[in-house]
Amino acid sequence: MSSPNKQKEKDKHTGNVFVVSLAFADLVVAFYPYPLVLYALFHDGWALGNTQCMVSGFLMGLSVIGSIFNITGIAVNRYCYICHSFSYSRLYSYRNTLLFVALIWALTIVAIVPNFFVGSLRYDPRVYSCTFAQNVSSSYTVAVVVVHFLVPIAVVTFCYLRIWVLVIQVRRKVKNEDSPRLRPSDLRNFITMFVVFVLFAICWAPLNLIGLAVAIDPARVGPHIPEWLFVVSYFMAYFNSCLNAIIYGLLNRNFRNEYKCIVTSVWVTRLFMTETSRAATDGRSMRSKQSLPPPLNNNESVRDRVMKE
C-alpha cells in the first residue's frame, strides 16, 4: 500500500498531463500559422495558395479550441482533486487521464471540421491570416461562440467558484486542524491555473463578443465595427498563447526552477562553445608562429640570411 503523501504526489502528476496538453495547444500556432502570418505581412497579402490557407486556418482553430477545452479539462481536474479528493485517484488514474486528454483533442477536431463544410476558413486581409470568418454564417458563428467559448467558460467558472468556496472554508478551519485538507502547493497550483483561465477569458472575450454581435444582426452591426477594434481584439486573443508560459514562470516555483536550468544550460553551452572556438583559434595561431622563421636580430641582415640558406 502506498502512503497518502505518495498518492498525493502521484495524483498531482496525473493532473500535469493536462498542463502539457495545454502547452502543446499553445505551441501549435507558433510552429506553422504564425510564420505564415509574418510571410503574408511582409508580402502585403496571401501568396501561398488556398491549401496552405486551409491548413493554417485549421491549425489556428486547433490551437484555440484545444486551449479552451484543455483549460476546461484542467478546471474539472482541479475541482475533482480539491473538492472530491476521495474519489480522485479512482477517477483520474494515469490511464483514465490519458483517455480524457485524447477525448479533449478528439472533440477539438470534431469542433473544427464543420468549418470546411461551411467555408468559414478564409484569408482576412485585416489581420494577414487565414482564420475563422465571422460573417459567413450567422447561425454557425453563434454556435461557435456558444460551444467554443460560453459553455466552457461557464463550466470553468462553476469549478473555480466551488474551489474558492472550499479554500475559504479551509482557511477558516485551518487553525483547528492538524492536517489541513488543502496543502499550500495545491493552492499555488490552483491559483496558477485560475490566472490562466482569467487571462484567457479577458483576451478572448472581445473577439467572441464582436462575432456574436455581428452574427445577431450582420446588416446593422457589421459595418459599424471599427477595423482597429477587430484587429486589436484579434491579436489580443492570439497573444494569449504567449502568456501561459509567462504565468507559469511567475507563479509556479517548479516552472521557475526549470526556466533557470534551461537558461543556465544554454548560457553555459554558449560559453563552452566560445571558449572552445577561442582555444582552437589560439592553437592555430601558436602553430603558425612556430612554423615561421626566427626574427632577425640587429647583427644579421636579410642578405646574410639569404646567403646562409
TrEMBL record:
Ranges for domain G-protein coupled receptors family 1 profile: 1-248
Keyword field contains Oxidoreductase: no
Annotated TM spans: 15-34, 54-76, 97-118, 138-168, 189-216, 228-251
The keyword Metal-binding is annotated on this UniProt entry: no
Highest taxon in the source lineage: Eukaryota
UniProt cross-references to InterPro entries, sorted A to Z: GPCR_Rhodpsn, GPCR_Rhodpsn_7TM, Melatonin_rcpt
Known function: High affinity receptor for melatonin. The activity of this receptor is mediated by pertussis toxin sensitive G proteins that inhibits adenylate cyclase activity.
Name of protein: Melatonin receptor type 1B-B
